[in-house]
Every structure is written in C-alpha cells, then in structure tokens.
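Section 3.1: Structural characterization of target chains.
Under the original work plan, the team committed to producing a structural model for every single-chain target entering the pipeline before any wet-lab resources were allocated. The record below documents one such target. The sequence was received from the expression subgroup and is listed exactly as submitted; it comprises 435 residues.
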Amino acid sequence: MRDFAISENPRVQAQLDRLGALSLPQGRLGLDTVRDICARLGNPQRRLPPVFHVAGTNGKGSTCAYLRAILEAQGLVVHTATKPHLVRYNERIRVAGKLISDGSLADLLERVLDASADLGPSFFEVTTVATFLAFAETPADACVIETGLGGRLDATNVLENPAVCGIATLGIDHEAFLLVPEAGTPADPLARIAFEKASIAKPGAPLVVQSYAESPLASVLATASHIGAPVALRGRDWWAETGETIAYRDARGTLSLPLPTLAGSHQADNAALSVAMLRHQNIVPVSPEAMAEGIKAARWPARLQRLGAGPLTALAGQRTVWLDGGHNPDAGQAIARHFADSAPLHLVMGMLTSKDPSAILRPLEGKLASVSIVPAPGHEAHSPADFAPFTALPVRSFANVAEALAALPAEGDVLIAGSLYLAGDVLKRNDEAPD
C-alpha cells in the first residue's frame, strides 16, 4: 500500500519521491525486514523513552492525542508518532512536542532509505524506522506511538518493552489486509481483527482494553494470555461512566474527570482509555490534575472538527461546517450519534473506492438535507452513482468542495466526511493545517 505526500521543501520532496516509489513485495508480510533495517541503524527501537503503544480500528489517534496532552500537562517532554498525515508528512513525527523539522525529516528518511535499499522495504517500514531514529536521538520522557494497519504485522510491532499497550474500539476496516485467511487465526471477522490488534501485546507489559462483544473479547484475552501480557479490561478491571463528568474508577481509587473538548460522545471513551493506560503502568507517574488538564487540552484534527473562518468556510456563509475523516461503519455511527438532535445536515462526501459508501450514509439516514459528492484528491474515489442506492435524496456531483459549498441552499449546517485524504485537502484550503 502506498501513501502520498508532497512537501514545499525540495530536500524532503526528494525523499518523499523515493518513498512513493516503494511497494510491498508480493507475498511478503512480516517483521523481518523492519527488524533488519533497525539492526543496520543501531536498533533505535531499543533506545526509546517509555513507550505507550496504541492500536484499534477507531479512536486510537484520539487516544494518542489524550495521552500526549496529559503527559505534557504533567510537564513531561513527549515524542508522538501518529498516522496518517493530513496536510504535511511532518505531522506523523512529533519530536519533543513539535512537528519534525524539514531538515531533520529529509536527513532521517535519506539515512533509512540508503541503509535499506537492497532489502526492498515498504513505505511503512522506512517511515517507522525513521520515526524510531528521531525519537532515539532526541531526549524525552515518553513516547506515544500509534499503530498503522492492524498490529501484529505492523512495522511498529518491533517495539520490545513498552510501558503499556492499549486497544481502542474494534470494527471492520482494511479488510483486504486484515481478513486474509491464515491458518491458526480466528474465522470470525471481528475476532480476527481483535487478534491482529491484540498482538501488539508484549510479555509482562499491561494491555489495557475497552469492553467488546463476546467473540472479539475472547480473541483479545486468548491472544494476551498466549503472549503473557496482563489485561486490564473495561468493566472488569476499570470502569468509566459518562454524564456531566467522566466518573473513572479502578483498584487504585476513583477520579472525577472533565469531559473532553473534542466533539462526540465517543471521545469520553477514548479519554477514559488513555487514563486507564496511564493508571495501569508504573514507569511514568502522572497526577489526576494532569489527567484533567490534558483531557480538556487535547486536540485531534479532522475528527468531528468544527472548522474555523477561512477561504472554504466563507463559501458556506453563516452556517457551521464540520469535518470528519471517518470512513467505516463505526465512524458513521459515531457521527450519527453526534448529530442525533441536530437539524438536517448538508453532506459533502468523498470516499475511496476501497471503502463502503453505506458506512456513512446509512447511519445518517433521515438526518440529511442534501448529498453532494466530490473527489478524494489524488486517489480513486466512488462516483455519485455508487452512493445513490443508500439515500433517497438526489446525489449531486461537484469537482471540489468549494463548488459544493457554493451550491448549497441558504440554510442548514454542513458535514464534510468520508476520507482523511479529503479532510487534509479541506484543512489545507481553509488555512487550518495542523501544527
């Protein structure tokens, strides 16, 4: 799988062009290549500050945002690795709290690409090792690292001694990669995905998880038991109830924590998972006060983000414009819950052909005033005809988001959704690139 990135810096762009030419060799899955690259560069994954490793179908990026904000509220220096980027590749690597500089990024990518040229590495293997190098060579108090696809075979899974691992929500996504039949793995699709995610667990390191349905939960527990990782399960080892606050409790006591600033009721669950991860590890002390401050301070772009004033939103007049990069059924349900009591929305949507158009449209049935389809920049996207079976509304097509916004009726708020690639383009064009 390729990812695409551009940079205004010619040195960075030269390395991104090299990355873009890489592909995953046919039939090669596993961690051997990324381990070989790490070994050639001094095994940087073994020289990191304490690692908080997070997997999940949805919510893992937000959980990482809460972890980072809480740790920084404690006064700690934090490295953060998240994916994908929205506008600039640099967003993937935050070194000591700041996006990696163009000069450092170009140097690191060049080092890894040169060292691994004869190994036929993939995009994700190179970028992961570059991230580890950045984190190993700059002092910090903690690392927050998000997995990419799955967990078991994700390049970040060469990490050996994390302080704690966590799994956010589980759902069906990336089926072509995570549901390939393989001997000895669960047959049930959600249990198989649970197995892939839970395989980031490491012997002796706590694995903190949300509550799941019976089949995926059994898969998580069996996988952790096989690895030798103690499990902290929501509803058994820790609890979090949401009202006007997050009422959290575990064996260490109770906490009353504020609700997140991030929109969406599901964000309280992501915040609670981050708190549980911090409470079930003993390497990095964090106070309840820092947890409360971090939950309120956390930001995570393109996840039910209310866009600010800018060139794109000006086309929508006085209406509110929301942006969400969600593209699978769980994301669709979360979006629908957030807008359950709102007036009908104008949906502007672009979605990759590898995704299911019904994932967003079905949960929003009865909540939409109009449906406008736009391309997902730089990628193959569904046509308007692909969306028509899932809505009774006319499906209109536009060349871009600006045209779609300008053509909307005078009333009703707007939701732009369906793809993180589309979300990144929107943020760039509205002058709201993540910093």
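Residues 4 and 20 are 7 Å apart (CA to CA).
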